[in-house]
Amino acid sequence: xxxxxxxLIHVCCAPCLSGIxxxxxxxxxxxxxxxxxxxxxxxxxxxKKRRHHVRMNEKKFGLDGFEYxxxxxxxxxxxxxLEADDRCEFCFRNxxxxxAKIACENDFTHYTTTLLISPYQKxxxxxxxxxxxxxxxxxxxxxxxxxxxYDLSREISKKHDMYRQGYCGCIFSEYERxxxxxxx
Length: 184
Ligand code: SF4
Prior knowledge:
Elements: E1 6-11, H1 14-25, E2 31-36, H2 44-56, H3 58-61, E3 65-68, H4 74-83, H5 87-105, E4 110-113, H6 123-137, E5 140-141, H7 150-159, H8 171-178
Parallel strand pairs: 1-2, 1-4, 2-3, 4-5
The site of iron/sulfur cluster (SF4) has 10 residues, from helix 5 and helix 8.
C-alpha cells in the first residue's frame, strides 16, 4: 500500500489544465502527472491540434510527468456514442476508465480530470462515473467541483496563446455548436 498521496490528471486540453494546475499543485500530493487521452475528439485534425497545444505548454504546467495516448479507435467510439442512451456517459466512462487503469498500474493513489473545470459538462454524471472507475481500479477519484477556475483558465490560455476549441469534442457536439439552430 502506498502511503504517499499522488495524482494522475486526465487532461482534455491545454486551457482547462492551465486553470486548475496551480490549485492541484498547492494540495498535498507528492507526485502529479498528466495523461492526455481523448479519442472522442473529432475530426482527427482537431485531436492533433489539441494534443499539440498540450505538448507545447507541457513545461509551463510543471508536472512531474506526462503521458500521451495516441489511441483513436474512431469506429468503436462512434458506434459506442450512437448506441448509448447518453453519449456523454459513454464518453466519460471511456476516458475515466483508461485514466483510472493507468493510475492503478503506475501506483497513483488518486486520479482526476480537467473536465471538472467545465461549466458545460454534466458534472454530477462525471463524478458518478469517476467514482465508479476509481472503485473498479482501487484509485480514489478527486471529484472536487473546480468550475470556479474556469474564468482563470480563459485568462491564462489567452495570455499564452493556447488553442481553445469551440466545441466539446465529438462530431455531435460540433454539430450542436455550428449546425442549424432553426429546428429548435
Ligand atoms: S459532448 Fe463532449 S462529453 Fe459529450 S460525448 Fe461529445 S465529446 Fe464526449
